[in-house]
Specification:
Structural class: alpha/beta
Number of domains: 2
Oligomer: single chain
Radius of gyration: 21 Å
Number of helices: 10
Shape: globular
């Protein structure tokens, strides 16, 4: 068992991750960063990765650690192994995972005594509704509160008071609210909240990718779904992602632009009608297959740009086929990023400033995120060229053989992680 529709963290979820937001906004917390590691297939490698994470955390000297995973079953071996490696080093920790009634841990240890169950399904099962059983703000607040309590009990003579703050890297996020979206024949434009896209230009961008992957892709289509069109039929939902672009600097610093009110939905199907899935496909009526308003899904009032990829038979069951769908999707989105990147700050509807910073004297907390790292429909891409993009990135399997990679809070919030589940 790996990740099903209700538990998978989409690219949009990583972009909006409530764990990162709660920790970064907590004035008592010195947020050290995010340790990303892939879940492995081989038990020996699971143990190796867990020990390397434990050794790294010991060197980082955190006061406490949050360990999060979006998959279950066999992957709970990775989860338990990491928790044990952290606990053996006498570091207070809290775990976050879907459990419910269906996903009882296949292995346990004495350090698994503080687990926040991410289940929100009334029957406690993995469902076919995207993001139903993923981390929300309340889960994050609960996990941080429990962790702080454990830290205080272990250090009962210390006062956790921030005595100085040092700013490291700054990220400015300018947002541009899309109030209406549609297609037009002329040049694409954004004026007074109305985004007009040239469908022919988007298809031309998609075709440039399609020409390189005809051995895997049979075709694709693009449509805009308005907030009132939740009754439309969709193929299996591979991902939700934001439309964001770098206006200055690299991922995690400088200036990024973001369209709010518009998200991208990548769907796919094989020519024969087979729906790509790990544990149950999420195809069907859109309004019945998505838990809207979660960190990893659009709000109910958002427009959705649906890029639907038709894969050649058999390709939905290969790593290369799924990656081809994500690459084609990103190539289409790149044409919209060009519009977004060119917008003047004077028409922005919001501006946020984020710092990677050191809060001396505060609770030093690190997050360990165990992300998919097994292959087809169970993989994670790191460090794309554009926020939450695909092009320029590399799978955690290929980049580090699933061994941990450390990223800063600003890199994470700026789209350094792209989901391939």
């Amino acid at each position: 068992m790996g990740t099903g529709p209700s538990t998978k963290e989409t690219t949009l979820h990583h972009y909006n991750d409530p764990l990162c937001q709660v920790l970064a906004n907590d004035q008592e917390v010195d947020f050290l960063g995010i340790v990303l590691a892939g879940t492995s297939d081989d038990n020996e490698h699971k143990a190796f990765v867990a020990q390397r994470i434990g050794a790294l955390l010991e060197a980082m000297r955190p006061d406490g650690v949050l360990v999060s995973i979006d998959s279950w079953g066999n992957c709970h071996i990775d989860f338990a192994s990491v928790i044990q490696a952290v606990g053996e080093r006498n570091i207070p920790l809290v775990g976050l995972s879907f459990v419910g009634t269906q996903a009882a841990f296949v292995v346990t240890n004495s350090y698994m005594n503080s687990i926040v169950d991410l289940n929100k399904n009334s029957e406690g099962v993995e469902s076919l509704i995207v993001s139903e059983n993923t981390t929300v703000e309340l889960d994050a607040v609960k996990a941080v509160a429990i962790l702080k309590n454990k830290i205080c009990k272990q250090n009962n003579e210390r006062d956790w008071v921030v005595n100085s703050t040092k700013n490291l890297r700054r990220l400015i996020l300018r947002s541009f609210a899309v109030k209406e979206a549609g297609f037009q024949n002329g040049n694409a434009s954004f004026l007074d909240g109305r985004l007009a896209l040239n469908l022919a230009k988007l298809e031309e961008a998609g075709n440039s990718a399609y020409e390189k992957m005809k051995d895997k892709v049979a075709g694709f289509s693009i449509r805009l779904i308005s907030p009132s069109q939740k009754d439309v039929s969709v193929n299996s939902i591979l991902d939700f992602s934001p439309v964001a672009a770098k206006a200055m600097g690299g991922i995690g610093e400088g200036i990024s632009h973001l369209f709010t009110g518009l998200n991208v939905m990548l769907t796919a199907v094989e020519e024969s009608g087979f729906q790509p899935a790990n544990f149950g496909a999420s195809n069907g009526i859109l309004g019945e297959k998505v838990c809207f308003g979660r960190p990893g899904t659009p709000n109910s009032s958002d427009y959705i740009l649906n890029i639907d990829v038709v894969l050649k038979d058999g390709q939905a069951r290969t790593r290369e086929g799924i990656m081809a769908a994500h690459e084609l999707n990103d190539t289409v989105v790149a044409a919209i990023r060009d519009i977004l990147r060119s917008l003047s700050s004077s028409v922005a509807t919001g501006k946020s400033e984020y710092w990677d910073r050191v809060r001396s004297g505060g609770y030093k907390i690190a997050v360990v995120k165990l992300v998919p790292g097994l292959g087809c429909l169970y993989d994670t891409l790191l460090f794309p060229s554009e926020p939450a993009g695909y092009v320029g990135g590399k799978s955690i399997m290929d980049r580090s053989n699933n061994v941990q990679v450390v990223i800063s809070p600003n890199e994470y919030r700026d789209g350094a992680v792209h989901s391939l589940t």
